[in-house]
């Protein structure tokens, strides 16, 4: 039988019942043992009567003790456990009645204290949740206000191209008869091909930081929009395992396109009208200066020579201006850098989808072009070359740009037929996108060439291309904000400012040696900012410094900075000014600050600025928190605080800086718990540890 399934009172009753039976059994056994030893039958009745009286007395006593135990122990324990359970699962206000368990010693007061603390904790947690909910609601409202006033349309779409977010500008740009709706397809408002192509191309790059510029048009009004697409990603594993959504920013360029087209038409007409008279004027002057003119050296001859020279200069100037106009024709257009291999594969896929075949051969280049329209142009040309075969698309380097060559086996393409094709709309979903417009967008031209007896090609030069290199570190694009700063009240005296309200710049230097008095110099400075109690990942200062002297091999072994690395780096005068601006208005924090500040103070003349900032030293802070008897090296401090410095980052300026910043943030609550809440209170406490390290606050 599993007694744990029974209630406490039942188990107590069974305990006393077993105790009673045991006592009765012991009484009977004792009387029987005594009777057998005496062997006197006359005593049997007396012993039975005595045993019966003793048995009833034992049962009565045990029953009375059980009753007292049940009333004063078992029942109160059950009632107390029920009240504890109720107060842990329900919000019951008021003090718990401790008189119900007055015979249980300190158990009832202890239980009351626990429930009181639980209630206080629950109330505090509820208040904290309400405050945080209110704060998040306010931040949400502020972000919504900011996004609603962004001068571009913003759409957030799922991998299935369903709308998950849009702002007011997007509503105006899409211009549909009905407003956009969440969980509706973006293709209900924008033509599909450019967007779908850009999305698949970004997926193919397998680069979560890549972006694509494209052109699309609205379905309602045919408005042309310049767009930028960037994929959403929650880390590399998410990116690989699941198709991500994307952000689409939109800008109306219909008016820009019309104005640009008018300007282009005007400039083309201007050059056409000027170039012909200039050429005719130059030819006429050439006729007038023929051999049958007057003898050389006459006044009329000098006039003719001057006129001929001016005509030549005019013609050269017109040609120069025309070339500059052609070079700048596409500068205003939103063109992205895309891989030549991506362009070649996209053309091959488009041609294959239409039943054809083409071999892409591409150099390792990044091309500045509108990928979707260029693919449409090249695939359209292949589609029209029906009587040719063995197509090949070659993209090669051509000076500062690249040459796209569409090659085939068969007869070359006549100029007239090519011009007619370029005037026809391309398969882009936009009626006004022609081959001519694509070429104009890229400030490019196209011409046919014959290759030997059996092959020919079309050539399209692009103005800008570069070699594919290792992708540089992406520029941080996260939104950085802290709306709590809007409500912060500034305190005039820094000594009275709460520690959590101060802005900190944590920094570290690497040097040629340990003796600034003997000519050692800084070779690297790194710093991070702490605002409102958190380290801002995007606000980092990290630069090498040319020390204007050799770096000893022993120092290079420590921090890994060699003479070759600092060659061409800025000197301490420029770096010092930049660092001073980065740290302006902040409290400086360093580990063993006197060492780093000594190098900076000695260069204040060259820098032109004074480093008179308030300063905190994590060595002294460690002494306040852990006591002077502990070791206060950066390694020991980070080990005590559970901070891991990667081996490759140790003894680098940025690695030690981040570790120092994290150590300070972890020690800050401990300092506040000791009652050190303002900067002045903390500095006063730090000065008690002056024998360990000098405090630099005057």
UniProtKB/TrEMBL annotation:
Membrane-crossing ranges are 12-35, 47-69
Coiled-coil region(s) at which residues? Answer: 122-149
What is the catalytic activity of this protein? DNA(n) + a 2'-deoxyribonucleoside 5'-triphosphate = DNA(n+1) + diphosphate
> Which Pfam families does the protein's record reference?
RNase_T (PF00929)
Arranged from A to Z, the UniProt key words for this protein are:
Coiled coil, Membrane, Transmembrane, Transmembrane helix
**What EC class does the entry list?**
transferase
**Recorded superkingdom:** Bacteria
Identify the residues that the record assigns to the Exonuclease domain, covering every copy: 503-673
**The keyword Transmembrane helix appears for this protein:** yes
Q: What is its EC number?
A: 2.7.7.7
Q: Where is the secretion signal located?
A: none
Indicate whether Phosphoprotein appears among the record's keywords: no
Which purpose does this protein serve, as stated in its record?
Answer: DNA polymerase III is a complex, multichain enzyme responsible for most of the replicative synthesis in bacteria. The epsilon subunit contain the editing function and is a proofreading 3'-5' exonuclease.
Q: What is this protein called?
A: DNA-directed DNA polymerase
